[in-house]
Amino acid sequence: MSTTSSENKNFYWHCQVASFLIEGFPQLNAATRAHVRNAIRMATLTARGKNGIPYATKGAIQERLKAGKDWHQLGLIREHVFPVSLIYDKVLADIATNEKTSWSDVIGSLTTEDHTNWNVPEDQSTFAPKSAKIAKIVRDHTVLAWITKKEDTALRAKGFSKSMPSNCDPRDLHARYSTCGLELIEIAQPAV
Question: Residue 75 region, left (φ>0) first, then alpha (ψ -120 to 50), else beta?
Fold first, then answer.
């Protein structure tokens, strides 16, 4: 489940755009926030690639078995297990601290192609640009799953379309699913 070269390049540019807007407009208003949020959303969609969906619920798996079709042809929802709105919040909170981050702190979250796109220096003790910090946050928190429309409705009914349960472990990216009784099962998808 790897990303294509095109997806990696687009991921890089989405992170660059988010960084450019955040740095260029330190006092984000409603308009610039919307553009940053969209850049983050687009980064999440390219971070794992079209076929980088490692999980599905039991209901989604049953629909696939019944229909015998490719995941993309079933009318299922390609869901962010950890909501994009929270990834966006994490990006803004991290960038707002204005802390410098070394390449050694972000390098483990980047793909080999990211290293080329960002021109990662040999001396990884040097500071990484904000766009690379954004890339780390997005790659670390982007987890995708196939779910049914009924399961999506259940998540929304519990108030988890854009939030996590208040009492969950912040490291548990799957918490809103387990709170709703939805089990995520690891699936293998063939490369296209």
Answer: left
CB atoms within 10 A of CB 96: 11
| Long-range contacts, 167-176 (Cβ 8 Å, 24+) | 173/81, 173/82, 173/141, 173/143, 174/81, 174/143, 176/81, 176/83
For residue 143 the two structure tokens come to: 């987890």
Report the predicted TM-score, pTM, of the whole model to 2 decimal places: 0.90
DSSP string, 31-83: HHHHHHHHHHHHHHHHHS-TT---EEEHHHHHHHHHHT--GGGTT-EEEESS-
pLDDT at 88 over 90: yes
Rounded distance between C-alpha atoms, residue 174 and residue 171, angstroms: 9
- The predicted pLDDT at position 172 comes to 85
Q: Are 74 and 67 in contact (CB under 8 A)?
A: yes
| Arithmetic mean of pLDDT over the chain | 90
